[in-house]
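Hi R.,

As promised, here are both runs. First protein below:
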Amino acid sequence: MSPRPTTGTSISGHGLWHPPTVLDNAELCAAFNEFVGRDNAKHADEIAAGTREPLKESTPEFVVKASGIHRRYVQDKTGLLDPERMCPNIPDRPEEVLSIQAEYAVNAAKVALASAGKVGEDIDLVVLGCSNLQRLYPAIAIEVQHAIGAHGYGFDMSLGCSAATGAAIQASQAVQLGAAKCALVVVPELTTPHMNWRERDSHFIFGDAAVALVIEPTERAKPGSWEILSTQMASKWSNNIRNNAGFTDRCDPATRDNIDKLFHQHGRRVFKDVVPMAERFVLDHLGQHDLKPSQIARYWLHQANQSMNELIAKRVLGRDATRAEAPIILDEFGNTASAGSLLAFSRFNEDLAAGSLGIMTSFGAGYSLASLLLRRR
């Protein structure tokens, strides 16, 4: 095997945070089915006339089979369990108060900073990546920077479900270039507000959570940190996962409240497209280091769908992956958009010995893909 190159940067701290409220499949489906019953009753004449298809109920068994999800953490479930609302109740905050996504980011950042043995003043770059930003400006990253007492600069990054890995790559590159001495990556995935909770095929997908990483030069990182050997990114245009919400919505009242302003996807097309794409992407990254898939101790894959993750891991390894090799957090967290692979890393990395190799990989809307090849120091 040829000598492995390195970026000279390491993940020296990590931390995850989630809201305390748990929403399980049973209560979610009960609320959804109440909505279905009311809607079908409202349109009973059209359904009887054959001009309208009745809505189908959902079950916990269907949710698990379709996704592997058993529960998820949510900011609020009172609104989600209200058949007349089916949207979280999240009061707007005054401008002088920390925004909710900044709060998510700060909560995860505190854990990551403590893990790295750092304080806010040690940070001179904050990169915030997530699938949806609650506002365009001022950048939420700068709000986080201010809240933790960091220096330097910060910026937000949007790249669908590759926003978190992409943010980590941008932070690593900034440290390599000397533009930052110690970077903080924050991923405040508040996903439940952009979910369509009335759509049977996806009403169960998302959960809310935040994760953070501290990235600094390897020479200054503590023992046990994860050295970033190399990174890789790719994108290919696709309309199969989309959210059309934006600042021009108010300009067309006729479409302002359409369901395309929420998350929507062509799930079967996504599965068919992404599995071979992700397999090739991972194998290409390993090939740059003359590494065989069996040499990777852990695959921290994007947590979108359990069947998808299992199939990608199987195609990469040439056999079924064990849970130790490719951990799943979907059953507890649901799909947390771009945070998934970082959450899997944060939850499942401490048991690996020095010299172990792992790869953190995302694949999502865009299509966008990103990966970081890591080695335990």
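And here is the second one, sequence first, then its structure tokens:
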Amino acid sequence: MDLIGLREYQPGDDVRYIDWNVTARMDAPYVRRYAEDRDLTAWFLLDLSPSVDFGTLDSERVKRTVLIDFVATMARLLTRRGNRVGAVFYGQRVEQTLPAAGGRNQVLHLVDELLRQPALPGAPFTDLSPLLEAAGAAIRRRSLVFIVSDFISTPGWERPLDRLNRRHEVFAVRLVDPREASLPDMGPLILEDAETGQQLYVDTADRSFRDRFQAAAAERQAATARAFRRAGVEAMTLATDDDLVRAIVRMAELRRRRRH
């Protein structure tokens, strides 16, 4: 969007558009007015760290597969209307930035680059802050930004998320697998952290252990939801056993409510 002027704040205006410098000089709140471009630019911030290669045999899908399916579908839907799409890939670090462009060839290029990204056998524990900061530096025009991640990360990513959302329209797509929220009774198991490789012997027959596991997963999910709310970011959950079409319809409805 291009800046076309300023006007005094009116109830219902988006507070993100308040121009604080002018507000201080005029002793009254003023908001920036924009003219929308005819086309939309959308960016995908893609978390390809080791934890996205987790999935259960019931669905025969891992979170990475769900990520690729979502990106391919959304990119095609967007470019069919003349919009442009770009992407930032994150593995152990920010690996690559694919500049935004339009057309079917851009979608094919994006999917091809996604499929080329290797599954990492191990990496330092994920830190999403560099991904969000790199996006803030790379994306110049106001854009629609999809962050596709399981959001299993070291703390601290909330602040760059907030900064990114002040400049762009940000939508979080949280990848999950049912077994990350609860464990079945399968007897003794050795669990391995997908990122650090650390192993832990557990007895899933122990009901109290399963309850503690479920409570910890619920708290992690609640903490992530609180971070999204503080940043004013809409979010949806996309599970490995979800129907992708229905999930995209849910996302479109969330975005429609946000805009109105």
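A quick note on the second one: DSSP finds seven helices and ten strands in the chain. Let me know what you think.

Best,
J.
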